[in-house]
Structure formats: structure tokens, C-alpha cells
Amino acid sequence: MKTTEKTAFQDLLRSSVLKAPLGLIKFSALLKNIIDIAPLDEGQKNAVIFHLCRGLIEPREYAKINPSLMTAFASDRIAEKAAAEYGRCILAKALSRVFTALVPKYKNLTAKRIFLNYFYKKFLK
Questions:
Q1: Tens digits of per-residue pLDDT, 72-125?
Q2: Which is more confident, 55 or 103?
Q3: What is the per-residue pLDDT for 83?
Q4: I need a surface site. Which of 6, 21, 28, 65 has the fewest CB within 10 A?
């Protein structure tokens, strides 16, 4: 891929992630980036993890734990970072599926190296 194609792909991925409905994966990526900047004590972090493990994705419930979380959800910078992380997850999952389809017998380190070298030379250079 050329640099302009990579940039266009990144922009497309970022915009599609930001426009995607708030599901558990997108919410987890947002929350992971928010936790780094929001001042939470250990009990609040445990409450956030408990809510997340239950699959709760309503931001108001997290605002009950700490009101600063609600303002952090509205931050564009957090959304950009979360979109990049979400995009990496999608790309990793796609790469994993392609690898599994192409190299079903040889799921070892050498096969992974060969596959990733091929992928890098073919698509990322």
C-alpha cells in the first residue's frame, strides 16, 4: 500500500468506528482510554470493571460511579484514541481469520513468521 492509500484507509476506519453504534467493544475501548485520565480510586475501578463484565454499556450508570467519567465520554480526543484501538482490534481479528484460513495445519511460530512476512511485504510496503 502506498502512503496515501494507508492514510485514506486509516481515515475511513476511524470515521466508520466513530459513527458505529455504541456496542460493548466500542464502549470498552472508550472506557479503557477514559480510565487512564479519570481520577478513580480502587473501589471505583472495581465498580467499573464489574459493570463492564455484566455487559452494561449505559454511560449514565458509569457516571453514578464517578461524574468525571461522563464528561470524559464527550471528549473528541478519547474518541479518536478509542477508534484507533478499535480499528487495531478489527484488523487483528481479520488478520487472524486470514491466517487461520491459509495456514490451518501449521499453527506454530515459524508459520506465523512466514505469513506475517508475506503479509507485510505484500500489503504494507
A1: 777 777 778 888 777 777 777 887 787 777 766 656 777 777 777 777 777 655
A2: 55
A3: 80
A4: 21
User: Would you state the pLDDT for residue 27?
Assistant: 80
| Close Cβ partners of 108 (under 8 Å, ≥ 6 residues apart) | none
Gap between the terminal Cα atoms of the chain: 6
Q: How far is 99 from 25, CA to CA, in rounded Å?
A: 22
Q: Determine contact, residues 85/33, Cβ cutoff 8 Å.
A: yes
Cell triple for residue 99? 491466517
Name the amino acid, one letter, at 116.
Answer: L
For the cut 70, the answer to whether the pLDDT of residue 56 exceeds it is yes
Q: 55 — alpha (psi -120 to 50), left (phi > 0) or beta?
A: left
Q: How many residues does the chain have?
A: 125
Name the residue range of residue 104's domain: 3-124
CB neighbour list of residue 119: distance below 8 Å, 6 or more residues apart: 95, 98
DSSP-derived letter for residue 105 is S
